[in-house]
Here is the input.
Amino acid sequence: QLQLVESGGNLVQPGGSLRLSCAPYAFTLDYYEIGWFRQAPGKEREGVSCIGSRDDSSFYGDSVKGRFTVSRDKGENSVYLQMNSLNPEDSGIYYCAARYSEDYLCVTKPDLYDYWGQGTQVIVSS
Here is the structure.
């Protein structure tokens, strides 16, 4: 069973920034599409962003477009989610997930992902 580990969650004030990291345990992220998802209490899991495996094409949900940036560092074998201009609605547990894909376009449908991390909590509050 492939495993992912997220880190970087924290308490931050509105308007602040955080960078989340997603690293695999004992496998390389090459050829894996990576999705970022979040879940707030009482709400369904929401697709935030994803990055493709072929040319690092990316996608962002409407609620984070222009504020979040997903990137891949092949040397570090990690994927990052830079989150700027955070607001309380961004609070939740953030998960990264992986799926093997040779598609150019990534997707943010949770059911399509095979491997998940344990999540890292983000709290945006003054």
